[in-house]
Design goal:
Keywords: Nucleus, TPR repeat
Family: Belongs to the UTX family.
InterPro entries: Corepressor-Demethylase, TPR-like_helical_dom_sf, TPR_rpt
Strand content: under 5%
Radius of gyration: 16 Å
GO molecular function, one term: chromatin DNA binding
Oligomer: single chain
GO cellular component, one term: MLL3/4 complex
Helix content: 55-70%
């Protein structure tokens, strides 16, 4: 993301985004024209979150090893990013975000929305051995 180009999310947009998760998969068709505004908002949120994560990684690399700052990213950020990618039907990125959440969140099994989204990704890839 260009430094001059900053994304801002309004409180209304954040409210709409907070209500979106893996439960809407299959019901909220973001590829259709009837949800064009929601799709644009989700794409904006994905761009914002990914830009934020890239910025944090760049700041961590820029710090000298002795003066390293510990920047903590809430694992829920990756989970929400996974939900957004799932709703956009970008299964590879959704799976990546869910796996990052899985690795960072010790109690990941207590989050049913994460488990449902991860299960949908596994189902998409036929990766569900019994």
């Amino acid at each position: 993301m260009d430094e001059k180009e900053e994304l801002h999310l309004t409180s209304q947009e954040l409210q709409v985004l907070s209500e979106l998760d893996s439960r809407q998969f299959g019901f909220l068709k973001l590829r259709g024209s009837e949800h064009g505004r929601t799709r644009a908002l989700v794409l904006k949120a994905v761009k914002y979150l990914e830009g934020m994560l890239v910025q944090v990684k760049e700041e961590e690399r820029a710090c000298s090893p002795g003066a390293r700052r510990d920047i903590c990213i809430d694992p829920k950020t990756y989970c929400k990013l996974g939900h957004f990618h799932l709703l956009l039907e970008d299964y590879a990125k959704a799976m990546s975000a869910y796996q990052k959440f899985y690795a960072l969140e010790q109690d990941n099994w207590k989050d049913p929305l994460f488990l449902y989204g991860l299960g949908l990704c596994y189902y998409h890839y036929n990766a569900f051995d019994w």
